[in-house]
Amino acid sequence: MPDSGFAADRDTPRGLLQTADRALLVLLGFDRRRTDWGVTEVAEEFGWDKSVAQRVLATLAHRGFLAADPDTRRYRIGPAALHLGRTWERSGSLRMLVTPILADLSRQTGDTALLSVPDGFHIRCVAAVDGEEGPLRYYPLVGELYPAHAGATAQAYFAFVPEDRRRRLFRDRPMARFTDRTLTDPDALERRFHRVRELGYAFTIGEYDAHVATLAVPVQLHGEPYGSLSLGGPEARFEGHADRLPRILRAAEQVERLLTGARRH
Predict the structure, then answer these.
(1) Four-CA torsion 95, 99, 105, 106, nearest 10 degrees
(2) What is 92-260's CATH superfamily?
(3) Which residues of the chain are in CATH 1.10.10.10 domains?
(4) Which positions fall inside the IclR-ED domain (predicted)?
(5) pTM (2 d.p.)
(6) Domain 18-84's class?
(7) For residues 223 and 154, what is the distance between their CA atoms, to the nearest angstrom?
(8) Rounded-to-integer distance, Cα 212 and Cα 209, Å
């Protein structure tokens, strides 16, 4: 199991319930490489008696967090995890957690700072802090859907989606033109995505909102694209946007550490 993140410290702090902590350690042991566990493996991994490992796994299965395969007697993630995942998306917890990072970034740059996550063929703003020149919209940015093809906020995420998946997403799909700078040609857009990947960031002026410039970087969790972090403001403010890049990259790293439980080395 990875030695970083929320499960980095396997010792239960004094004052906390060891049994509950053990169950959570088992859940955190699942990832893309480890999709199922057996009783013996859990006991060996955590240094527990097999009877303890069995009880922990059985309890998690009883509440639907794990599902036992009757043929192999191995355990996989169960449907209760899906329930929690969907609740997390709607709870506002993500906004609460990342807003201090966005506020600090906005104070440093004077720009509006946004965190956005994918939503179908769009990317949705889930948290935002207005810049020193005030709101970019006459309505709240949180909840705004940005189309996948228009502007840096979306491009900084979709550029890092695997190419075959991205091409399927864009295939035979009409793309609206919002300004005379909006890219609607699939080949030109694909070239843009490749360029964003090379640079590690996206920068656009007036592709979604006329006269609004946006600098955006991907937010990646465990090496996979999760969303994007953006700075936006009037075009004139971004004549030299390179000085903002170290700050927005540092903020993106802070978000990534926050959401994965990773620690500084």
Answers:
(1) 100
(2) GAF domain (3.30.450.40)
(3) 18-84
(4) 80-265
(5) 0.82
(6) mainly alpha
(7) 18
(8) 6
